[in-house]
Amino acid sequence: MKIKSFILLVIAAFALNSCNVDKCDMLCFSGPLSLNFELLDEATGENLFTNGTFDAADIEVLDLDDNNSSVQYTFDAENNRNIIRLGPFGWGTNIVNYTLKIGDVEIFQLILDAEQKTEDCCTFVQVNTLEIKNTEFEQNSETGVYEVLVVL
Question: H/E/C letters for each residue in 30-89?
């Protein structure tokens, strides 16, 4: 009889313990934010690197709040995508004021205020302000890429 009671007690303890699920027992971490830009001819919609108008070697990104110091970027030419990637933002770098130039031509100015937040056990980057000045643009809803329209 004591063995049956002990076994029943152990089973009850396991059953009650499994009901104690912590809502933070899931992985939800967005990581830092990167922004992707595609430079398109306003008239034709063609990518200006793909059609040879611009050369990736002429890209320059400057930090306007830090004496126009150079900013690291990535140029993704894989599969002829020709995308300029800026970031990461939100972890350490929270407020930026950049200008993107191709040669001597300023294409756009990026103003971004982003911060790391934690809510409901999840860590993510919240964008407080995002402005792309001196150009027309659209964000592609499928890819998230900012399609910047350049007047030639």
Answer: CCCEEEEEEEEECCCCCECCCCCCCCHHHEEEEECCCCCEECCEEEECHHHCCEEEEEEE
Which residues, 6 or more positions from 38, have their beta carbon under 8 angstroms from its beta carbon?
A: 47, 81, 82, 83, 84, 145, 146, 147, 148
For residue 105, the 8-state DSSP code is E
Q: Which two tokens stand for residue 30?
A: 């967005």
pLDDT digits (tens, 9 = 90+) for 14-54: 555 555 555 666 677 777 899 999 999 999 999 999 999 99
Choose among 134, 18, 37: nearest CA to 86. 37
Q: Which residues pair with 102 in a beta bridge?
A: 59, 105
Tell whether the torsion through CA atoms of 89, 54, 107 and 44 is positive or negative. Answer: negative
pTM: 0.81
Count other C-beta atoms under 10 Å from residue 148's C-beta: 21
Find all residues with CB under 8 Å of 138, minimum gap 6, and list them.
146, 147, 149
Give the single-character DSSP code of 29.
B
Question: What Å distances lie between residue 114 and 57, 61, 81, 145, CA to CA?
Answer: 29, 19, 26, 18
